[in-house]
Amino acid sequence: MLGTSQFQRYTLLRALTKYIRDSYGYPITRFRKMLLSNANKIRNPKMHLLLLILIALMPSVKADETVAVNITSKPQPIYIEQGAAAQYLNFDFVVENLTREKLLVSSIEVSVFDQKDRLVLRRFIDGNGTRPSIETLNNRELEGKKTILIFNPFHTFDNQVELKKLRYEFSFRVPAQKKEYKLEVIVVPVTYETKTNLILPVKGRMIVYDGHDFYAHHRRFDYLIPGLQQLGFNSNFMRYSYDFVPVNQQGEMYQGREESNQNYFGFGVSLLAAGNGKIAAIVDDKPDSRSFNEAELASNPMVLWGNYVVIDHLNGEYSLYGHIKQGSGRVKVGETVRQGQVIAQMGASGSSMFPHLHYELQTGIDTKAEGLPSYFKNFRRILGSKIIEVKRGQVDTGDIVEAQ
Ligand SMILES: [Zn+2]
User: CB–CB of 360/385 below 8 Å?
Assistant: First the structure.
């Protein structure tokens, strides 16, 4: 048992180590080592014991002693999506400030290494220039003890680049001070082999109004925004989504008044099973009102989609169809569907700006799922007067495609 005064001394010393840790970002390991090496020099057995107890009481920290920030890349695994001319990385960094100081991300550098661990390329964003590239980050101010999401700024690489390993170096500045912290994060992306041999879920000419490129709204879902966390979102379930909108020969999505769903070429168009499988979920009783009840979001985040269908491809992959037309469901839960079979119609239910199909290949049926890269077979890519036949390929924001 310890006497009161000793206890107070321990409390004081613990508070001191905590203060040092918070102020200087975990130099605790060094402090601990220093205490240990000095413990044997103390002749007074009481003081010796006191010091040993103090060391035992100190929080043990595995991290590097200069670590002020903790960075995690999300989701895991990180996939390489293969495009016709480039490859894409779709992931984010969760950045946690372990100090009490406000930090500012001052630069991010990425170095790409091949299988032989040789440098392939290096890129960075920093504070150089009158409108510096670091300002393109969605978020770079880190209040003390707070966590922010940073969308990976290096998302597109030439097909020739072997993305074996990426080393990110983050630099953080303490504003108005010279102090700077650096932290390395290693990212090892893997190629995802889509198991389902998908077709585009809509026939005819359409535009990928918004997909999942770096600027797409599906990509820019910051689930660390406090309100969203309270609603139970802790990942980006829309990471690989598409909004498909049928267009005419001129690329227009509607004629006449935009407010009327009927004026959209896509409203009521058949939605096809992108692959074989079993119906895992279907809802089709919501109106095509381009709105949803926000109060329901906490208990059922799927209200975002209004009406929806989910096909379980029975291989760990699921196809989600969002915003389908009220009363248009042609299938029931548990029913087996064949690729190309009509399952529902395009609508404007839920969080939908106008009639379109929200489609994503994902790992599960709800918003707890992660998105997966998807490739489609047998379609045409319409590049103005140039038309390219695609046997199997990736599509993304702005692409005009036509299923055969
Ligand atoms: Zn969407």
Answer: no
- The rounded Å distance from CA 227 to ligand 1 centre is 20
Q: How far is the CA of 101 from the centre of ligand 1 (A)?
A: 38
Whole-number Å distance, alpha carbon 315 to ligand 1 midpoint, is: 24
Q: Helix (H, G, I), strand (E, B), or coil: what is residue 38? A: helix
Contact at 8 Å (CB) between 197 and 315? Answer: no
pTM beyond cutoff 0.85: no
- 359 C-alpha to center of ligand 1: Å? 7
What are the pLDDT digits (tens) for 119-162?
Answer: 999 999 999 999 999 999 999 999 999 999 999 999 999 999 99
Domains and CATH numbers, the chain: 4-57 (no CATH), 69-191 (2.60.40.10), 204-403 (2.70.70.10)
In angstroms, the CA 114 to CA 137 distance is: 27
Q: pLDDT tens, 151-192? A: 999 999 999 999 999 999 999 999 888 889 999 999 999 999
Handedness of CA 318, 319, 320, 324 (dihedral sign): negative
Q: How far apart (Å, rounded) are the C-alpha atoms in residues 355 and 194?
A: 28
Q: In whole angstroms, what is the distance from residue 45 CA to residue 338 CA? A: 80
3-state secondary structure of 252: coil
Which carries the bigger pLDDT value, residue 2 or residue 347?
Answer: 347
Measure the CA–CA gap between 227 and 222, rounded to whole angstroms. Answer: 10
Q: What is the DSSP string of 63-115?
A: S-TT--EEEEEESSSPEEEE-SSEEEE--EEEEEE-SSS-EEEEEEEEEEE-T
